Each structure stands twice: as structure tokens, then as C-alpha cells.
Amino acid sequence: KRKSCDKPTAYNRPAKQRKIITKDTPRTSPLLPTCSSRQNLTLSDWMMVYSFIDSHPNVTQAEIVEHFKSLKSGALVFTQSTLSRKLRERPKMEARVNDNPNALSSKRPRVVTRPDVERALILWIRHMENKHEMVTGPMLREKRK
Fold this sequence. Notes:
Number of strands: 0
Number of domains: 2
Shape: flat
Helix content: 40-55%
Number of helices: 6
Strand content: under 5%
Radius of gyration: 29 Å
Distance between the termini: 77 Å
Order of helices and strands: HHHHHH
Largest sheet: none
Low-confidence stretches: 24-35
């Protein structure tokens, strides 16, 4: 025969220790940077980086990254490897600006695989705007099909 077991007791958690905050200690001691994570830069931002590189030819890529990270008005955060890659893509990016000046606010190139469909959509949108109709994304997708 088996012995009967004692019933388990309730688990006693240790009490949480509270941090004692006095009026003399600051709430947060480290200063948080305004923009700590990387971001996708627009074509206009990269053109600004290229003009800085042209005006400062003897500056290393790491120094360029630090310069733009420490700007007071709108810091641009990117890595040295990203800068190196974008320097290789510089002719393509400058060609995009020359082909379409409105592309300065874009972050990636707009690829059109069917120019005939693109042109038809533009004509349809203009027609709808002349009729004072609102065009939505789902409507454009259906029209594209």
C-alpha cells in the first residue's frame, strides 16, 4: 500500500523591493539621443550627404557618419556600410533626380513594369478628378487588373 502525500503548500513569493527615490536624484540620469535608431533616408537627404562629401574630400566615411548623426537640426542616422553602398549607387541616384525632380522626397525608386498600364491609370485618375470623384487605393488596384 502507498502512503498518502501531504498536500502542497502555497508558494510564498519574496516581497518586491521598492526603489527609494529622493528628491536629490534625477529621474533619468542618461540623456536619450533624439533619434537613436536608424532610418530610411530620402533621396534629398542622400543628395545633401553627397554635397557634403564633395565639399570635404579628405573626410573619412566614419567621420561623415558622425557628422550627420550629431547635427543639431535634423540628425541623419545611418551606418558606414550604408554610406559605402550608397556611394556606389550615387550615379543611379543622381540620374533619378535628373529624370524626375519629384523623386527627391521618395525613399526608394518607383519601378514601373508596364508603362502602358501606368499611362492608362494616369488618364483614368485625371478623368475621375475632372468629375470630382474620389479615387481610392482599392479602386486603383481593381482598375490596374
